[in-house]
Amino acid sequence: MGRVEAPYRLCALSTREGSGVSFTATGGQVRGLADTTLGGAMFPDECARQLTERWWMFTGTTSGTGDCPIGYRFYGGA
C-alpha cells in the first residue's frame, strides 16, 4: 500500500448499519486506507482487503468486473 501522500480526500460515512472514514489519494490511481465497521460494504465497485479488525486498504478497478490485485477482493456496488 505505502503511504497516502498529500493531497488526499477525507470522507466520513455514517448509516444505521455502521460507520467509517476513508483517506483516499487524489490523482493517479485511486487507493487509500479506511477505518470502518461496515466491512466490504464501505467499498462499492472497488477492490479491498482487511488489514486488522476495522482497518482496510482499497484500490479502484478499471475493469468494472473486479480485476483486483493479489490479496484484494472485489466488492460490487448496489
Describe the structure.
This protein has about 80 residues and is an all-beta fold. The protein has one domain. It is built from no helices and six strands. The chain has a six-stranded antiparallel beta sheet with strand order 1-2-3-5-4-6, with no helix packed on it. The chain is globular and about 30 Å long.
Quick structural gist:
By secondary structure, the chain is mainly β.
What is the arithmetic mean of pLDDT?
A: 84
Number of domains: 1
Q: Low-confidence stretches at least 5 residues in length (pLDDT < 50)?
A: none
Structural class of the secondary elements? mainly beta
Which H/E pattern describes the elements? EEEEEE
Radius of gyration: 12 Å
Tertiary shape? globular
Give the fraction of residues assigned to helices. under 10%
Strand order of the largest sheet: 1-2-3-5-4-6
Instruction: Tell me the number of helical segments per DSSP (H or I, 4 or more residues long).
Output: 0
- What is the total tally of β strands? 6
Largest sheet: 6 strands, antiparallel
Q: How much strand?
A: over 45%
Our measurement of the CA-to-CA distance between the termini, rounded to an integer number of angstroms, reads 26 Å
